[in-house]
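Customer escalation, tier 2.

The customer says the design service returned an amino acid string that "doesn't look like it belongs to this structure." They asked us to rerun it and document both sides in this ticket. The original structure tokens are below, unchanged.
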């Protein structure tokens, strides 16, 4: 399994999972069950819902779909371009808006 998307909320994750499965890519949502405990847990990648492709051969295709999904969702972030986390230095795939390792946001609000 390979993670293709880190969602803002469970609805977001399940919506994308449906889109992937409609495209013939088996996918799963992980972490949505932790959502209700989110207020009590530190905000990390482990407490965010994420979408995974079950078969890694679908990974590249899935990333294209994710990129389209993200741009349609109006996230406004350029997709496909890898970026480096300012907090931990991890390299992240372009579709992630938060560091997959530490959850640090890709863009810090100015000011
Ligand atoms: Zn990081």
């Amino acid at each position: 399994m390979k993670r293709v998307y880190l969602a803002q909320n469970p609805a977001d994750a399940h919506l994308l999972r449906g889109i992937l499965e409609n495209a013939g890519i088996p996918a799963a949502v992980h972490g949505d069950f932790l959502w209700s405990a989110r207020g009590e847990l530190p905000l990390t990648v482990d407490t965010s819902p994420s979408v995974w492709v079950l078969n890694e051969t679908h990974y590249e295709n899935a990333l294209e779909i994710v990129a389209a999904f993200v741009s349609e969702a109006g996230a406004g972030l350029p997709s496909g371009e890898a970026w480096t986390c300012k907090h931990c230095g991890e390299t992240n795939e372009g579709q992630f808006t938060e560091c997959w390792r530490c959850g640090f946001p890709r863009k810090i609000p100015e000011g």
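Tier 2 assessment: The sequence is consistent with the input. The mean pLDDT is 82. DSSP finds two helices and five strands in the chain. Sent an explanation to the customer and offered a walkthrough call.
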